[in-house]
Amino acid sequence: MIKYSIIKNLLVFLFVYVPPLVIFIRFSRERNKSKIVLFLIAIFYMILSVFTNNLLPFILTAINIKYLRDANRSHNFYKDQCSLCLSKHNFKETISSRLSNDFIRFGFTRKKFNIVSAIKSAAFSYMVIFMISIIEKIIISMFSVQVKDQEVVTEMSNMPLNKFIILIPIIIIFAPVVEEFVFRWLIFEKIFIPRIGIYFSALISSVIFAFIHFNLKAFPLILWIGLYNCYLIEKKGYWYSVFNHFTFNLVTTMVLLAQKLPAI
């Protein structure tokens, strides 16, 4: 049991916490930040992340999104001011140059985010989640399968109200921002699609996303969220996938909170 817990925490750390740090360091090195300072930041980040859940990955993700915005602005500025600087002869490729179009291409700019459209997308997603839940309950009942709730759900159900309230922003805000950045933008869009195409990329990245939550009962629901959010970031933008993820976590969290309130 202890080995399982160690392996689980290690995988979560590698898939969720490490990628924002790697991207942050790549951008920072490009800006000639001190290697010693970055090393110290990395050490403190890895240690403190164990105790702060998604807080530090959220902060680095926000900084990385800002770096993507800066890369887009710098690219456009130099393209307008000096086309010669962008020639293959004079132009040295950097992480900013490679990702210069991503801020607009994948909808990191909030200007293109429409709340009404996002609500419609999230409503559709939740209808599918509701249907999956019904089918899952029928299958579980038919075959008398014993499945446990997701560990974080169980922990939050048994958690004192004051600690539960502290966790709310971590669950409904920090987690969606970080996980969509890692699983949809980085793994799905940047790592998998150039190598295996959009459909296999959506499937494999969503399976990894569902697996990393380590719960058989929640697996079909999380798999759907992953697949649908791949569609959202590809067709509408990053903040649409974040909003859909946020909605799912919000509803789950509010249900758990409502169960606690009568006991006050």
TrEMBL record:
Residues 163-251 form the CAAX prenyl protease 2/Lysostaphin resistance protein A-like domain. GO terms for biological process: CAAX-box protein maturation; proteolysis. Keywords: Hydrolase, Membrane, Metalloprotease, Protease, Transmembrane, Transmembrane helix. One of its GO terms (molecular function) is endopeptidase activity. InterPro entries: Rce1/LyrA-like_dom (IPR003675). The chain crosses the membrane at residues 7-25, 37-63, 123-144, 164-186, 198-225, 237-258. This is CPBP family intramembrane metalloprotease.
